[in-house]
Amino acid sequence: MSELQVNRSTFDQVMVPNYAPQAVIPVRGEGSRLWDQEGNEYIDFAGGIAVNALGHCHPILVEVLKAQTDKLWHLSNVYTNEPALRLASKLTEKTFAERVFFCNSGAEANEAAFKMVRKYAYDNFGAHKHRIISFSQSFHGRTLFTVSVGGQPKYREGFEPVPGGIDHVPYNDLAALEAAMDDSVCAVVMEPILGEGGVIPADAEFARGVRELCDRHNALLVFDEIQTGVGRTGELFAYQGLGVTPDVLTSAKALGGGFPIGAMLTTAKAAESLGFGTHGSTYGGNPLACAVAEAVVDLIDTPDVLAGVGHRHQLFVEQLEAINSKHNIFTDIRGSGLLIGAELTEAWHGKGAQFLAAAREEGLMLLVAGPKVLRMTPSLIIDEADILEGMAKLERAIAKVLAEG
């Protein structure tokens, strides 16, 4: 079968324009390095938006995937399969959860969580208890339900009417949440760190207060750990570092190390409300995805890898502070583990994309979180030499943007 020749212009001819991809097309990756169609090499600080937690083409993940492809690819959910059962067993052993639902993405994991919390409240308290409270600037996915729970109105505009019974309050504002809470609330949904909303960590006191308010009003606490989970903060899941245990947790991104998978984790009591026939996913629990995800969890949930995340965090922060001392371009450097945000000074608000383009020209891939925060979510095992080289590229990119005004 002949291979069709394609390039960036092909995207504009055949793809829906909901994305505006970069001019280059990466074709190969290894570790924290990528190469494009022209053979140009890049250091990857983006990590597929916190997905490639073990870098590109990790040899053990490649080996596991190849082995599973020779065994079993797909079953309908009329049957279960061994990789899904092994992965679910490990996730329940390592977390508060007692039950797991598998799907294909973070949005699907959140969709399942949001349906379940409403059904749980309906089953246990009645139809009046249906309100979901989330936080301004939060992001929970792009389905109509998840984009409604998300606290960024720009993503809902033009898709109305959206699902009702959803309210938003400011993040890290416990008084605002307390004022919004009553016994009609079925759940509070929060990210331990606002990811797309600017890499803003939850205050520990705020997180504890959210838990207490949920308990007081018989509401479930849902932690969206799609971006923070599976080692990103130096804990297997961020809630373990906060010391606040949710009733429901959603995971995706790093869970598959690049292979699509999502998971909703919860208690046995809450899971009862997703009984037979209430929810489903054709590909959820796919043997290929679960086999890879099991290997990801085994590789990441080790003292060396998790401790290494903290060490690399310090190196990133030191390098960003050194850049800032020279160029005075950041007002804040924040985050946890290898979810790091550097907020640009006010003069450069709305212009984050300029720094991304300049970095790409220098051979560095990174992200933004909104138009004013540079975001880094690299491999959790990125070589220190790659961090230093990438930061040198970032410094040159910043100098170039500043010089051009």
Automatic annotation (TrEMBL):
Q: What is its EC number?
A: 2.6.1.11
Give the cofactor binding note.
Binds 1 pyridoxal phosphate per subunit.
The name under which this protein is listed is: Acetylornithine aminotransferase
Chain sites annotated for binding N(2)-acetyl-L-ornithine: R142, S281
User: In which residues is pyridoxal 5'-phosphate bound?
Assistant: G106, A107, F139, D224, E225, I226, Q227, T282
Record's subcellular location: Cytoplasm
Predominant place of localization? cytoplasm
* Keywords linked to the UniProt accession: Amino-acid biosynthesis, Aminotransferase, Arginine biosynthesis, Cytoplasm, Pyridoxal phosphate, Transferase
Gene it is expressed from: argD
Q: In which pathway does it act?
A: Amino-acid biosynthesis; L-arginine biosynthesis; N(2)-acetyl-L-ornithine from L-glutamate: step 4/4
What PROSITE patterns does UniProt report for this protein, alphabetically?
AA_TRANSFER_CLASS_3
* Keyword Amino-acid biosynthesis (UniProt): yes
Could you read off the lineage of the organism from its UniProt record?
A: Bacteria, Pseudomonadati, Pseudomonadota, Gammaproteobacteria, Oceanospirillales
Per the UniProt entry, what are the Gene Ontology biological process annotations, in alphabetical order? Answer: L-arginine biosynthetic process
Cellular component terms, GO, for this chain's entry?
Answer: cytoplasm
Family statement:
Belongs to the class-III pyridoxal-phosphate-dependent aminotransferase family. ArgD subfamily.
According to UniProt, the reaction catalysed is:
N(2)-acetyl-L-ornithine + 2-oxoglutarate = N-acetyl-L-glutamate 5-semialdehyde + L-glutamate
Is this entry keyworded Acetylation? Answer: no
- Organism's domain of life? Bacteria
Question: Positions modified as N6-(pyridoxal phosphate)lysine?
Answer: K253
Cofactor(s), names only, from the UniProt record: pyridoxal 5'-phosphate
- Check the record and name the HAMAP family matching this protein: ArgD_aminotrans_3 (MF_01107)
Molecular function per GO: identical protein binding; N2-acetyl-L-ornithine:2-oxoglutarate 5-aminotransferase activity; pyridoxal phosphate binding
Source organism of the structure = Motiliproteus coralliicola
| Miscellaneous comment | May also have succinyldiaminopimelate aminotransferase activity, thus carrying out the corresponding step in lysine biosynthesis.
Quaternary structure (record): Homodimer.
